[in-house]
Amino acid sequence: MIDGPFRARLPRYVGPLLALYERLGWTPNHVTLAGFVVALFASAAVALGQAQAALVLWWLSRVADGTDGIYARRTGRTSEFGVYLDIVLDMAAYGAMVIGFAVARPDLRGRWMAMLFLYVLCITSAMALGSQESGHADAPTDDRGLRLGAGLAEGGETGIAYTLFLLLPGWLESLTTIWVAVLLFTVVARTELARRRLAGAAVVPAPSEGDPTPHVASTQGDGDPTPHVASTQVDGDPTPHVASSPSSTDPSERSEV
User: Whole-prediction pTM value?
Assistant: First the structure.
């Protein structure tokens, strides 16, 4: 929920850090990998009961996660693999922290297990909704390379939750219960959003080999029998080129949960 405004403002303040990456000879994928490695150290610090070290390491890893895509765009080294690597290592970092918490507080294992289960549902529902929305003309705009459906619990909220876990250990039982409830609400709310946005959309069959007829995705509203064709017609070519539901219009920005 707070990720969008944060991503919009962050590029104004990270110039010196991007210059450091350049001096080190790092690629954007190196930044992504470095952020993940630091997150693993944060998880180990959590497991060892070193809350302050874990907090510093966690937010250092999130700085790297927030700047890899900016660095890729500034240096012209964007790639679809970078987008893939970023989301995979993001989820691995979130999960690693939960494992660290579970080692430190095994008495709350039920809540840690629920978190991991709900993380799977959160990212699955976000990717499924984002993939389906990308084929709609009225889909919300998004600057990430991998289109993700909006939700209450995203990367920023996850970082805040982990920070509270570390700073307020006496409240951990209540805080973890609240966080599990937030994750569950995110999945339910996103599913309801998907139902409302996608219930009237037709499934587009894949064209059979040798079939020159384009299969048009219909985004018609209730009571509107006219399919709305997404045309990307080339100048001088009268044949409409039907959009095939790309994952994004801009592969340059790395994503978050």
Answer: 0.73
